[in-house]
Design a protein that fits this description.
- This protein has helices spanning 168-175, 243-250, and strands at 52-53, 82-86, 102-106, 116-119, 124-134, 141-151, 156-163, 165-166, 189-191, 196-200, 205-211, 214-215, 274-278, 296-301, 309-316, 319-325, 342-353, 356-360, 371-389, 392-399, 414-417.
- The chain is mainly β.
- It has an eight-stranded antiparallel barrel. A seven-stranded antiparallel beta sheet has the order 2-3-11-7-6-5-9, with helices on one face.
- It is globular, with a radius of gyration of 22 Å.
- It starts with 51 loop residues before the first strand and ends with a strand.
Length: 418
């Protein structure tokens, strides 16, 4: 995925567009919004629960051997060729729930494609090699990109995506069977630590690490994410790098809060915080592959500035949208069944450097900055939410409306679950 507010080129091949809020037709009000209660705020615990450890199958990926984790030997990109790192947990466009990989921003996008080398972090086997010729978010044709999934053992995997080219020898090997799609056997491609596997330029490089012996505790029902089975096994990559490489990478990371790699699992049973899926839309998978995110909803902290709450939804007037909450509350972490009906005024937001407040926009941030966020401009619409059970939430959005124009739920309200 290439990245970011205004700079974000398709994550995993998708594109980021700003949806223009549209007023919705007035409907008969079914539930009256009298005096909105103020939710009792319950802070997010500062102690991160220990991930669940589960046994992994002996052989999970084509060509893999062994099990357990490994120590990496190389950075995916040359340390001097990285401008900054964007952490796990970003939300952008169709990536409505927090993203399960980070982004390496190349030093100079203007130099074009294929400028910077991408190398294997450790020995392994490329068990999945996938070209992409369309923008995931829009379906429009684009120059080819490549995704590579590398098994270092049968339970420990690294992921690279948006490579603008792959090494010709690897591409030739893949072409023999098209990764098994040509009806012939596919046994993966063995690679060595530090081997040149491709190139990147003019966009970000996706990078993630997944340990299939670990299940993140902040997903209440992990099986609801089976459409992307690696997601619940996402782990912080930094501990697996040698100290010198780790320190250099952390010095490039835009996020200052712990965990520095970012966080993607925020569910708390009985609270509004975390990910939700519209009832009847097949959980994370959705109903239509080209727009699987349409029924997604996330009420989570911002990945750069975790003190700020985000309202991210798959369909806000026809488009996926990430918005701030005016006044930054009530905090979703404090909203339960007892809180009743909650009204949020939704706003655009921006980032600025606390050490230089007039410098704004995430693309202008530097790894040395203390990045903060703030609301921008007028209200873009209203969201009503109400916990109706420990794992059910009623939600309705009103793009283009003001608080005075929204008095309660209408027949268009949706039920979300997880």
């Amino acid at each position: 995925m290439v990245l970011l507010v205004g700079l974000l080129a398709p994550a995993c091949g998708g594109g980021l567009t700003e949806a223009t809020p549209q007023a919705i037709t007035d409907r008969a009000v079914q539930t009256t919004l009298a005096d909105l209660p103020t939710a009792t705020l319950i802070p997010i615990p500062t102690v991160v629960p220990t991930p669940t450890v589960v046994p992994a199958p002996a052989v999970r990926f084509d060509g893999c051997t062994g099990t357990g984790t490994v120590q990496f030997a190389h950075s995916p990109m040359g340390l001097e060729e990285i401008k900054y790192l964007i952490p796990y947990g970003l939300m952008a466009g169709g990536h409505v729930t927090p993203i399960d990989h980070m982004y390496f921003e190349p030093l100079d996008r203007s130099l074009g494609r294929d400028v910077y080398e991408v190398r294997a972090v450790q020995d392994g086997v490329i068990y999945k090699m996938q070209p992409r010729d369309v923008n995931v978010d829009t379906g429009q044709a684009k120059q080819r990109e490549w995704r590579l999934d590398i098994a270092h053992t049968c339970s420990f995997v690294s992921y690279l995506d948006l490579l603008t080219s792959v090494d010709p020898a690897l591409e030739a090997e893949w072409a023999k069977t098209e990764g098994g799609r040509a009806g012939q056997g596919w046994y993966g491609i063995p690679i060595k630590a530090g081997q040149l596997i491709g190139r990147i330029g003019a966009q970000t490089l996706d990078f993630g690490v997944y340990d299939y012996n670990v299940v993140l505790p902040g997903y209440i029902v992990p099986s609801h994410y089976d459409y992307e089975p690696w997601k619940v096994h996402t782990v912080d990559p930094f501990p697996y790098f040698p100290t010198a490489i780790r320190d250099s990478l952390l010095a490039k990371m835009l996020r200052k809060a712990e965990p520095r790699a970012g966080k993607i699992d925020h569910d708390v049973d009985g609270r509004a915080v975390g990910n939700w899926f519209q009832q009847g839309t097949n959980w994370y998978q959705g109903l239509v592959q080209q727009k699987y995110w349409d029924g997604h909803l996330a009420l989570v902290p911002d990945t750069y500035d975790p003190t700020a709450w985000r309202f991210s939804i798959g369909n806000f007037g026809g488009n996926a949208k990430q918005l701030g909450i005016k006044g930054n509350g009530p905090a979703p972490s404090g909203i339960g069944v007892e809180s009743g009906l909650i009204r949020y005024e939704l706003v655009l937001y921006d980032y600025y450097a606390a050490n230089e407040p007039n410098r704004t926009g995430i693309v202008k941030m530097r790894p040395t900055d203390d990045i903060r966020s703030r609301d921008m401009g007028s209200v873009q619409g209203i969201a009503l939410i109400q916990m109706t059970g420990p794992r059910t939430l009623k939600c309705e959005v009103f793009p283009g409306k003001t608080a005075a124009e929204v008095t309660g739920f209408t027949s268009a309200a949706k039920t979300y679950e997880r």
